[in-house]
Design a protein that fits this description.
The chain is an alpha+beta fold and 92 residues long. The protein has three helices and four strands. A hairpin with a 2-residue loop joins strand 2 (23-28) and strand 3.
Length: 92
């Protein structure tokens, strides 16, 4: 497998390790390399599956923190709304 083929395959299967954004294969001074569209530099890559798993874990961690914070600050429970009520609030 050539370096180009390896980088192309990596671009398809991986995302930036820094921001989980898309990495792009670019040519600089006749050499191919990967760069992040958001970060602007190369911070390494992780698989898309790993990035998705970490993002899901982060959402769960946020929910746990919000629940704990609400209990510590003794905030009232948010009002539970039905789908119809939410749609009505949005004007549908």
């Amino acid at each position: 497998m050539s370096n180009f083929e390896f980088l192309y395959k990596t671009q398809q299967d991986c995302v930036c390790a820094g921001c989980y954004g898309q990495v792009t294969l670019v040519t600089v001074k006749g050499e191919q390399m990967l760069t992040c569209q958001k970060c602007g530099d190369y911070r390494g890559v992780v698989t898309r599956a790993y990035a998705q798993r970490r993002q899901s874990e982060s959402v769960m961690e946020l929910r746990n923190v919000m629940n704990t914070l609400g209990q510590v600050l003794q905030l009232p429970e948010p009002k539970k709304q039905t789908t119809a009520e939410i749609l009505a609030d949005l004007g549908f």
